[in-house]
Design a protein that fits this description.
This protein is mostly helical. 69% of the residues lie in helices and 2% in strands. The protein has a two-stranded antiparallel sheet with strand order 1-2. GO terms for molecular function: transmembrane transporter activity.
Length: 296
């Protein structure tokens, strides 16, 4: 075991974990506001990555960072339309029916993405700006810098907005009780639409940064599966828990890739779910989730 590579693995893990946290924040906000588990979060990443690709290549030919900025409001509109046309009519229905409907949304978005962009993997035009920083044996790539700065920065900004801004307070009120929020004069359906739009925008931002090295393609969906162990570990209703769990699992994956993958092939993909299983045996609501007592 070469411990000299430990700092490099930690930086790589923090970069990837910050993006996991960013995407999971949108997932957690949707769950808190509507109690809907968005099984299509991987497809949200896919659509977001393809939207950036669309603005990055002809006829727009925007630089990759600018294409990301232009794609964010489009991704927000996409999430808002999904909530308005697909999710809202299902609210209040049987839980199993809602789950099956979101799984149906997965297949629908897969088909639409393949129809619009094709099944082959694409390549972004250009790279993320920035020069690698070399500190001895430690190399901080442009992708790592973007992942850490954007992932952690946007996550902290979102947490601050939820805590201190007017819209953040209204979103928190809706997440606590939609009925009470309506009684206080808050436009709950509008807030729920904003939450779904935010979730899609965060997924687009995280998706393009995760796929920046390889380019957008259907492999991005597999990256979205990491949202589930991150959300469960941090607590399905905990925003700070999503950030902490995302960073932690990103580091664990990087360390397992560097030190365990050679002798235990496949451990990198399995270990986050093993950790979640062990934690849930002791804390069924995750590390930071709120315990609920249900009468039956």
């Amino acid at each position: 075991m070469d411990l000299s590579l430990l700092p490099q693995f930690l930086i790589t893990g923090l970069s990837t974990g910050a993006l996991y946290a960013l995407i999971t924040l949108g997932f957690v906000l949707v769950y808190r506001a509507t109690s809907v588990v968005n099984f299509a979060i991987g497809e949200f990443l896919l659509v977001g990555a393809y939207l950036v690709y669309t603005f990055n290549v002809a006829p727009f030919n925007l630089p990759l960072p600018l294409a990301m900025l232009v794609a964010l409001p489009v991704a927000f509109l996409f999430g808002w339309l999904i909530e308005r046309g697909f999710v809202r009519p299902l609210l209040g229905r049987n839980v199993v029916a809602v789950i099956m409907a979101t799984i149906g949304l997965v297949a629908t978005l897969d088909g639409v993405a393949q129809l619009v962009w094709g099944a082959d993997q694409k390549a972004y035009n250009g790279e993320l700006p920035g020069q690698p920083i070399v500190l001895g044996s430690l190399v901080l790539t442009a992708r790592s810098m973007w992942g850490i700065v954007v992932g952690i920065g946007v996550a902290l900004l979102l947490i601050a907005l939820l805590r201190y801004s007017r819209y953040g307070v209204m979103i928190r009120a809706v997440s606590e009780s939609e009925t009470a929020a309506l009684a206080l004069g808050i436009n709950a359906p509008r807030m729920v639409g904003i939450v779904w739009g935010l979730s899609a925008a965060l997924a687009a931002l995280g998706g393009v940064l995760l796929a920046s090295a390889s380019g957008p393609g259907f492999h991005v969906i597999a990256l979205g599966l990491m949202v589930f162990p991150v959300a469960i570990l941090g607590g399905m209703d905990s925003v700070p828990g999503a950030v902490i769990a995302g960073l932690a699992l990103g580091v664990v994956q990087a360390l397992s890739t560097g030190y365990l993958e050679g002798s235990l092939p496949g451990i990198t993909e399995a270990i986050p779910f093993v950790i979640v299983l062990l934690v849930l045996l002791l804390r069924p609501y995750g590390l930071f989730g709120q315990s609920r007592i249900e009468r039956v």
